[in-house]
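Q: Structure tokens for this one, please.
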Amino acid sequence: MGGPGDPPEGPLEGAPGGGEDEYRSVVFDESFVRAARLQEFSAQERLGDHAPAVRRRPPMRRNLSRQAVILVLLIAMAFGTAIYMGVRHPYETPAAQPTEPLRMTVIPLAPQAQVPGSTNPENLYAHSPAAQFRIGAEGITMPVTRRTEHFSDSQVVTALSTAKDYLVASALAPEVLNGRSVRPARMLLDPQQLDQFDQSFARPTADGRHAPTGWLVRFDPSRARLADTKVRVQGTLQAAEYDSRTLEVTAEHTLVYALRPAGSGDKAKASLFTVRRELHFRFDTDDLRTHQAELVVSYVQAGPLACSEDSTNHLRPLLAGQTAKEGGPAGTDPFATGGATALCGSLAQSAQPKV
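A: Here is the predicted structure, written as tokens:
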């Protein structure tokens, strides 16, 4: 039934309120009207002489807001600055510090009496000051580590670990001790020291710079061989800042080897040989990253050795039953330049096994 004023058959199709108005959801707001390209003349304007009922409006100018313009300019400036900084960095990379050459001293210790010997190396160790020493790398103990002002805990640990690895490679590796290889120690050195290292083995010289026995422990294979691979070791490692860009590790260790004459069988008497090493390592950030070290100081005392023997290239131990030859150390020419003063000491009786 229709409402008041509607035809009996209901509202007409298309009349207001009748059927579904498909345009009811369209809202013609002010911005929509302003954006229209065609504009109807007003009633006052239509009274004049106008044939068309509408006129075409000029296109509106869409101006960017001031904030948008500023934002675009800031982005462009930031992008340009990033490109400039990438092409021309205003800060210079600090130049790498030159690596110091190794300074070394090797002092032979001559026995005061006949070198003690025994067919059982364990018996020698048990009656010597090395009785309580640990075996091999276990004797190179790591200290409690703390960060420094310019280096983290992990960097200090890396420096100490690298120093320990060098000690093992240069004084405990069997192929190094018997003179067959130098590679284990060489691999752990800073590349800038490799020339000095290689020259030391190519042309050994007692000049405080190029003695192989300053880099590592090795015995003359024509003189002696290991009677026991269980080398006794005791000592300390310490780490501290050398400067704001360098860590320094100091290693002080005593190593005791059991030796027999080269070519002899296991029935031959063995004797003990003692090496006291003080090594100073330095590490910059590149060394810590590559797990390599700069060895800057090597101070070695070793015996029993004869003062007259040349200990530059190999250590030539005095073995069981032998004594030091008469005469002092090799002479030093005070007029010769570039040579180191020959040094020799006495091996105390208390350092020898009581057998």
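A few notes: The chain has ten helices and nine strands. The beta strands are 38-40, 54-56, 103-111, 134-135, 224-243, 246-261, 271-283, 294-303, 345-347.
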